[in-house]
Amino acid sequence: MVPDAESPAISLVVRRTIRATAARLFAAWTDPAQIVRWWGPSGVRCTGAEVDLREGGGYRIGNRFADGREVWIIGTYERIDAPHRLVFTWRLEPGPDHAERVSVRFEPRGEATEIVIVHERIASAEARASHEAGWDGCLEGLARFAGDA
Question: Fewest CB within a 10 Å sphere: which of 5, 66, 100, 115?
């Protein structure tokens, strides 16, 4: 379902503080070799990652679910402000052509970093709930990868 002009798109904010520097977490988020080691909520395995880290560059992240189904998250980087912020489009392949938008901020908090994810243009409440569970799981994986969980 794609939001129409009469109904505002749904958004989501997810936060997690991880004991690691913003630079370390930004690198984990943008380096394909690191992404495959932490990406995905419980029950989802990252099968591959491709990153062209430049504004206008693209990314692809493979996700294999417990039932064997595989989808790729794809998008284009709209803004890169290392190591503070990433903004990119988000859509599933295969899936609808509707592109959502994700902004990830890496905010230093002493010896830790608060990651703030704002996911916008979500088409439905069901998709929002799925994204929230997915982001919570991804941030749990990132915390484990960074040695903070």
Answer: 5
Task: Tell whether 5 is covered by a domain.
Answer: no
Residue with tokens 């990153």: 51
Helix (H) or strand (E) holding 22: helix 22-30
Q: What is the DSSP letter of 9?
A: P
CATH code, domain carrying 75: 3.30.530.20
In 3D, which of 20, 11, 61, 12 has the Cα closest to residue 41?
61
Report the predicted TM-score, pTM, of the whole model to 2 decimal places: 0.91
Position 71, amino acid:
V
> Which residues 6+ apart lie within 8 Å of 133 measured at CB?
41
End-to-end CA distance of the chain: 36
